[in-house]
Amino acid sequence: MLAGTNHRVIQGGMGVAVSGWRLAAVVSRLGQLGVVAGTALGVILARALQDGDAGGHRRRALEAFPDQAVAARILERYYLAGGRGADQSYRAVPIPRCQASRQFLELTVAGSFVEVFLAKEGHDGEVGINLLEKIQLPTLPALYGAMLAGVDWVLMGAGIPTYIPSAIDALAEQTPFALPLAVVGATSSDSYTVGFDPSRIFAPPPKPIARPRFLAIVGSHVLAAHLARSEAARPSGFVVEAPIAGGHNAPPRGRLQLDATGEPIYGERDDVDLERMRALDIPFWLAGGYAHPQKLREALDEGAAGVQVGTAFALCEESGLDPHLKQLARERAAAGRLEIRTDPVASPTGYPFKVAKLPGTVAERSVYEARERRCDLSYLTTLYRRPDGRVGYRCPAEPIEDYLEKGGEASDTVDRVCLCNSLVATAGAPQHRRGLGIEPPIVTLGDDACAVAAALSPDGRPYGAEAVIRYLLGESAAAA
Question: Given strand 34-37, what is the order of strands in its sheet?
Fold first, then answer.
């Protein structure tokens, strides 16, 4: 284990704002690694301000933002004293693009800063931020905002995060960095990047920016070895995630095969060789089905530094999951009636995605079909090469006719879910659309949700993040 760290438990960076600052703060205060989800934090900040910023927490964080002119513009644009009306729509936010608008960059940096600042406030524990490699366009400003707030760890999965350590180095020095982009249809002569120069947008911070350490989330020892071999890409540690974990899963190696229920089949090739992980001489944590004291002990016996746990924290009181959905999921899981499906097509990314079957969510066919397709947040768009060589943006969950006009295949649109809007809705901030109703949520949990509930909430009752930590560390047989 790295010097100065003793985290037996890493709290998963789940969904959009499910792993929010309140949850991360509790976990970090208890000496473990609290993690905030880094996706769409600009959207979360804008909507929280429009809902009146209960408790004034985000406004307090913005008072500490190094560039007060930026903070003032955000407050002027989004803050509504007393909150918006019950049927009032949220104000639109700028969307990710290769040539991002100033408003997008300011809101993205501030959103990450606010979340990490609040997670670190009032204690000396370490805090991490979790980002998705698949969501490339906001990565650099999201990283920068987190680093301005003193984030200690950066976690990234859902892809091969080769360039993140170099990006962290550049941002710590306030120097420009260009992140290579994956663009469908790019030729060998093409070179697509998204750049970010903090000095052109923001006033310099009053003190140097500390460099956080990097944890790569991987699904195989092969990818871990690939990253470890490169001096530039070598992380400070790995989270090794099994396919039973919630959220996005690594696809099975080899040709995709589905079982009788339409779920991906994982085989021996997908098992991680822990002997090879140990040989890399880099700390690693095991994830996916490890929310049990015995599994933590097994991980430590295998040479792991500890475990990452998601579902148990997602269902605790401090998580950002909508309270009604959280209680419904706990009750069904406690009764052994919560079904989790590994959906091979729901996510626009093409990665398998765990979906909990709960009424009122897009897991219900009637709810899914009643939603009118639209793409107005656009975090999971695919970049593609247009005939003129410029970058285009498309998403298989957007209106089908729009997707086809951009060269997409009709078969790719079948059963796709707008995760951007649905996951924001899951965090309690659904968009209200005039004449169309409210955006429906989607809940993602790991395959072990029922086992987690049996241990921590056998009758579906609420429990806190501290109870999860105590249970995992063997300090309590169940939640208090």
Answer: 9-11, 306-309, 284-287, 237-241, 213-218, 153-157, 127-132, 34-37
Joined tokens for residue 396: 């298989």
CB 103 within 8 A of CB 135: no
Contacts of 354 (CB under 8 A, 6+ apart): 245, 246, 247, 249, 340, 341, 342, 343, 444, 445, 446, 447
The residue type of 382 is T
The one-letter amino acid at 78: Y
- For 278-292, the pLDDT digits (tens) are 999 999 999 988 999
Contacts of 423 (CB under 8 A, 6+ apart): 15, 16, 39, 40, 441, 442
User: Which residue carries 């710590």 as its tokens?
Assistant: 172
C-alpha distances in Å from residue 371, one per residue of 4, 404, 441, 480: 49, 19, 11, 40
Residue 406: how many other CB atoms lie within 10 Å: 16
Structure tokens at 300: 């430590």
Cα–Cα distance, 103 to 82 (Å, whole number): 24
Q: At what angle do helices 293-301 and 465-472 cross, to 10 degrees?
A: 50
Residue 420: pLDDT band by 50, 70, 90 thresholds? very high
The pairs formed by 190-197 with CB atoms below 8 angstroms and a separation of 24 or more are 190/385, 190/389, 192/98, 192/383, 192/391, 194/98, 194/100, 194/136, 194/137, 194/139, 194/140, 195/140, 196/105, 196/140, 196/141, 196/144, 196/171
Token pair of 88, please?
């009032």
Find, among 247, 75, 209, 77, the residue nearest to 239 by Cα: 247
Q: Which residue has the higher pLDDT, 233 or 44?
A: 44
Measured from the Cβ of residue 167, the count of other Cβ atoms closer than 10 Å reads 20
Residue 236 contacts residue 2 (beta carbons within 8 Å)? yes
Rounded Cα distance, 320 and 312, in Å: 13
The number of angstroms, rounded, from the C-alpha of 476 to the middle of its chain's C-alpha atoms is 29
Written as one letter, the residue type at 255 is: R
Tell whether the model's pLDDT for residue 246 goes beyond 80: no
Burial group, residue 9, by CB count within 10 angstroms (0-12, 13-18, 19+): buried
Q: How far apart are CA 101 and CA 111, in angstroms?
A: 15
- Cβ pair 431, 371 in contact under 8 A: no
How far apart are alpha carbons 332 and 221 in whole angstroms?
35
In angstroms, the CA 405 to CA 350 distance is: 20
Q: Rounded to two decimals, what is the model's pTM?
A: 0.94
- Give CA–CA dist 15/5, Å, rounded: 26
3-state secondary structure of 382: strand
Residue showing tokens 């975090």 = 379
Contact 316, 465 (CB under 8 A): yes
Numbers of helices and strands, H then E, in the chain: 17, 16
